[in-house]
Write a structure and sequence with these properties.
- There is one protein chain.
- By secondary structure, this protein is of the alpha/beta class.
- The protein has a domain of 222 residues: 3-Layer(aba) Sandwich (Rossmann fold), CATH 3.40.50.
- Helix 3 packs antiparallel against helix 4, helix 8 runs parallel beside helix 12 and helix 9 packs across helix 18.
- The longest helix is centred in the middle third of the chain and has 22 residues.
- It is globular.
- The two termini are 27 Å apart.
- In the C-terminal section; belongs to the DAO family.
- It is found in: Cytoplasm.
- Keywords: Cytoplasm, FAD, Flavoprotein, Methyltransferase, Multifunctional enzyme, Oxidoreductase, S-adenosyl-L-methionine, Transferase, tRNA processing.
- It catalyses: 5-aminomethyl-2-thiouridine(34) in tRNA + S-adenosyl-L-methionine = 5-methylaminomethyl-2-thiouridine(34) in tRNA + S-adenosyl-L-homocysteine + H(+).
């Protein structure tokens, strides 16, 4: 059963040092936290010198605390004319402060306050998992891993160049200094990675030596005689799963095929890292197919067992909101309507399950809470029959607005080729070629990203993507029809269907069907009738208002979603299926990291009805994989969306005939 995070309290000891009653220890030396950060962690790791002239540098910290080490490192990076191009700082914290708590502790930071304030503004809620915060236009990235170190450290997917070991004293918090933690650090260490910590305890030095670090003592800080510094130089030569090195591309140029939510997000993320992107789409502009409708809702998924879907949904929602906020701050707003989302149970048993999940998870109310029918009606005009989960940061947006903002942000790095259909792709001499129908080369680049939904299978021969098309139809109500009802919710309401608040013109939208893709892609009156029934189920008081509406006279939107067998998307490097099947015997007991991949070929596919949720996070995941950066999600979540997951299952089971079937008529959450 997952456990809620317990936030730290901003308590200060009599001598003015932040103090933890939980561990009966101070957060830093009485001689000064910033001075300790410079002497022990920066100095002990040879910084800023060791990052000089490098394209990328990755620091892993155990114990974020109030963030003084991060702020001192960020400041040193800012002041260094020879700094690395991109600095990644990844920190594990079990008991994060609240935003207000950080502000209290940061009040006296002086020169660091201009950095502390944007950190406070970006600070996430105390929700388990990874939270990626970007500063300096993305050149400085803080990835917070909130949770117990024994749970989070094994799930970090990265290669580290330096380590800051800054947990509470080993005598007060032994879990931060265990053999398990030392092995986890060794797993992440790139060759030559450095390490520093304020302690010189013998068991710490011996533990680090046992996992491959060369350990020495150095002069300590303040009243401490010694501290520990180390360098990763194991006597063994081979590592089955070495951490990813920083990528070295001879040319930062990528081809992206598909200009919907998936492709536009990938384009923006690569452009932000200095890549040129050639974007192809067969239509006359971006967001012309599944991403074309003018209103879609987004909210997280909650389950008491913290399923993969729930964790991916939460990570995607939080990342999307941060990404869209960054676009707006850069002058490219996406017009997000954060009106809140009320998810009601389909029956009393479903309501009970929702409430049990809230009780088990203990999430902060700023993320999700319970809302009863009386409050829903009084505060939001939602006359629901039952209470439900209230997501205060949920809402709705027009997907084309997001695509437009992302392409605008990419700017001169983008070469958009609309009305241009890629007929084939080929890999020659380390370069991917996009070819037209007559065989001519449209573009060539070392990286190619397929973001063209079900069309991807036309370009790659892969039986294990398991892509299927599912039809969805929405129903629009005119301003007059909405006005005749006498009232309409000012929030999104979802459950057995969903409805959106009134649009600026006074109209509204309800939906959505989830049917097999059969026949022409045209609106069907019987589906409009089913959507009216969904409205009557969500808002029973509106049943009489919609009974007189003629479904044959209604209009709306109809499109297709692309889904996989288990509704999770395909995000990441594509497998070399032919090579894997040729080695099916040796790969019978393989892991995903053992499978051969097609070099430079990536997928951002099958986002189904959660394109808003997964597009920004998926793009960040792919860009991080391409660059060899720390991944923005835990390794098990990256595995869950790996395009090779079905191929791996087939190899393990010795059943390589093809992918499993899918029931396209199965129920699905219709939110974005």
């Amino acid at each position: 059963m997952p456990r809620a995070l317990e936030s730290a309290e901003p308590i200060v000891s009599p001598d003015g040092i932040p103090f933890s009653p939980r561990y009966d220890d101070v957060y830093h030396s009485t001689e000064g936290g910033l001075a300790q950060a410079h002497h022990v962690f920066l100095g002990g790791n040879g910084l800023p010198g060791n990052w000089a002239g490098r394209d990328q540098f990755v620091i892993v910290e155990t114990g974020f605390g109030q963030g003084l080490n991060f702020l001192a490192t960020w400041q040193a990076w800012r002041q260094d004319p020879h700094r690395c191009r991109r600095l990644h700082f990844v920190s594990v914290e079990k008991h994060p402060f609240t935003r207000d708590g950080l502000a209290t502790l940061h009040a006296g930071l002086g020169d660091l306050l201009p950095l502390a304030e944007p950190l406070q503004a970006a600070w996430p809620d105390a929700l388990p998992g990874l939270h990626r915060l970007e500063f300096e236009g993305g050149a400085v990235t803080l990835t917070l891993a909130l949770g117990d170190i024994d749970a989070m450290l094994p799930k970090l997917a990265l290669g580290a160049d330096a380590f800051y070991l800054d947990g509470f004293s080993p005598s007060r918090n032994a879990d931060m200094w265990s053999e398990t933690v030392f092995r986890g650090l060794s797993r992440l260490a790139r060759p030559g990675a450095t390490l520093a910590t304020y302690t010189a305890a013998g068991f710490v030095r011996r533990g680090l030596q046992a996992v491959g670090f060369e350990v020495t003592k150095a002069p300590g800080f303040g009243g401490k005689r010694d501290m520990t510094v180390a360098r990763f130089a194991p006597p063994w030569k081979n590592r089955r799963y070495a951490p990813p090195p920083a990528a070295e591309w001879r040319e930062r140029h990528a081809i992206v095929i598909g200009a919907g939510l998936a492709g536009c997000a990938v384009t923006e993320r690569l452009a932000a890292r200095g890549w040129r992107v050639t974007l192809f789409d067969a239509h006359d502009g971006p967001a012309r197919q599944t991403s074309s409708h003018r209103a879609a809702a987004m909210h997280a998924h909650v389950s008491s067992d913290e399923s993969l879907l729930s964790r991916l949904s939460r990570a995607g929602n939080l990342h999307a909101l941060r990404a869209w906020s960054a676009l707006a701050a850069a002058g490219h707003p996406v017009n997000w309507h954060g009106c809140g989302v009320l998810q009601i149970g389909e029956d009393e048993a479903d309501n009970a399950a929702q409430q049990a999940a809230l009780a088990a998870l203990g999430f902060p109310e700023s993320f999700v809470r319970w809302m009863d029918p009386a409050e829903a009606a009084a505060r939001h005009g939602a006359t629901v029959a039952r209470g439900g989960l209230w997501f205060p940061r949920g809402g709705w947006v027009a997907p084309p607005d997001i695509c437009r903002a992302q392409l605008d942000k990419a700017g001169a790095a983008l070469d958009a080729r609309f009305n241009c259909r890629v007929a084939a792709i080929e890999h020659e001499d380390g370069v991917w070629q996009a070819r037209a129908g007559d065989g001519s080369v449209l573009a060539a680049a070392p990286v190619l990203v397929l973001a063209n939904a079900h069309e991807a299978e036309r370009l790659v021969s892969n039986r294990f993507l398991a892509l299927r098309r599912v039809r969805g139809q929405l129903t629009d109500l005119s301003p007059a029809q909405v006005a005749a009802m006498g009232g309409w919710p000012d929030c999104v309401v979802t459950g057995a269907g969903y409805l959106l608040p009134k649009a600026p013109d006074g109209g509204a939208r309800i939906g959505s069907s989830y049917d097999a893709d059969e026949g022409p892609l045209a609106e069907r009156p019987e589906v409009h009738a089913a959507n009216l029934e969904r409205l009557a189920t969500l808002l029973p008081g509106r049943a009489a208002d919609v009974a007189h509406l003629d479904p044959a006279q209604l209009t709306g939107y109809v499109g297709v979603r692309t889904v996989t067998h288990n509704r999770l998307p395909l995000i990441g490097p594509l497998a070399d299926e032919a090579k894997a099947l040729a080695r099916s015997g040796p790969l019978r007991g393989a892991h995903l990291r053992d499978l051969p991949r097609l070099p430079g070929l990536y997928a951002a596919l099958a986002y189904a009805s959660r394109g808003l949720t997964w597009a920004a996070l998926g793009a960040e995941l792919i860009a991080s994989q391409i660059e060899g950066e720390p991944l923005p999600v835990e390794s098990d979540l990256a595995d869950a969306v790996d395009p090779a997951r079905l191929l791996l299952r087939a190899l393990r089971h010795g059943d390589t005939a093809g992918a499993p079937a899918i029931d396209p008529g199965a129920a699905s959450d219709a939110s974005g």
